[in-house]
Design the sequence.
């Protein structure tokens, strides 16, 4: 007898499965929810066959659909504790709390199926997890560190995100602390993400058009596609009546900057899309380091009054321009 078993639930140290049982003699289909211990007894009956749910069968719910979807951070935590030879349940990069009962817990945010709220609460109680805020279908949950695995198997929870500590890292470690390096490497993803093929719009002031990080990682290809200096005079972009648009690479390089008195835009552009070219080992690169850029310079003469010398219409026009 051929079988294909999917684990869908964990309770009291036992796994459960769901599916359909076909009784050949009576030609009956019966949906079932069984523990593996009970299932083993059925497997000894030669005239009973198991047909698991597939192809949108409406006789039962797919096992995979019952399991919560896990955030990349949650998958990373489970991977770390599984790979730890010492069974370390407190790896770095996770936000922990110590409850008043002394239990060390992993902080989590979950999205639930509203119809399953009662059963989810009961299941959380069984693993000694405590719920804090219930904002509709979004709950905060404290899960004892030893019960995280069964927590990820509770039916009715749609999504689990293990909380990460809010940190203020130095810029030389920001990519690591915010897991951007994991996205670059493609950890837990179908492939790595570097911004390649993306056109990124940045609105600020004080852009250095000739900064090495504006080039690609080889230093050969210039990545600024165009710029709109809103408070300059010259050729306005199509559809607008003010400012100066620069679309030619040589003209951008000759122009040098949108504001000689400021450098803030260069820093922001570097964080968003800097290639790291020209820096030590190309280690100081931005999030989307292979993207191209559109820059909108909202010229300011004083950082302290940067929003006093412009208006919200600037931001609306700037975003619209970048999206055109």
Sequence:
């Amino acid at each position: 007898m051929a079988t294909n078993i999917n684990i869908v639930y964990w309770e009291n140290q036992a796994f459960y499965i769901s599916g359909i049982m076909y009784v050949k003699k009576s030609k009956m289909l019966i949906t079932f929810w069984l523990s593996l211990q009970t299932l083993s007894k059925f497997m000894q009956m030669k005239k009973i066959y198991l047909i698991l749910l597939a192809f949108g069968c409406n006789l039962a719910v797919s096992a995979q659909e019952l399991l919560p979807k896990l955030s990349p951070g949650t998958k990373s935590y489970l991977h770390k504790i599984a790979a730890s030879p010492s069974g370390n349940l407190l790896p770095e990069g996770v936000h922990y709390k110590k409850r008043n009962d002394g239990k060390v817990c992993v902080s989590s945010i979950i999205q639930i199926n509203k119809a399953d709220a009662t059963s989810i609460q009961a299941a959380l109680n069984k693993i000694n997890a405590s719920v804090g805020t219930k904002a509709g279908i979004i709950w905060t949950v404290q899960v004892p560190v030893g019960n995280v695995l069964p927590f990820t198997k509770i039916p009715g929870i749609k999504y689990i995100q293990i909380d990460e500590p809010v940190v203020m890292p130095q810029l030389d470690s920001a990519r690591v602390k915010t897991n951007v390096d994991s996205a670059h490497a493609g950890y837990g993803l179908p492939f790595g993400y570097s911004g390649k093929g993306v056109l990124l719009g940045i609105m600020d002031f004080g852009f250095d058009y000739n900064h090495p990080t504006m080039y690609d990682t080889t230093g050969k290809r210039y990545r600024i596609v165009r710029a709109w200096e809103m408070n300059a005079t010259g050729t306005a972009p199509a559809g607008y009546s003010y400012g100066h648009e620069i679309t030619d690479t040589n003209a951008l390089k000759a122009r040098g900057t949108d504001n000689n008195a400021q450098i803030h835009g260069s820093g922001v552009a570097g964080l968003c899309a800097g290639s790291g070219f020209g820096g030590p080992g190309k280690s100081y690169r931005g999030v989307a380091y292979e993207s191209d850029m559109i820059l909108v310079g909202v010229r300011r003469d004083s950082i302290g009054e940067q929003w006093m010398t412009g208006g919200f219409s600037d931001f609306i026009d700037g975003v619209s321009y970048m999206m055109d």
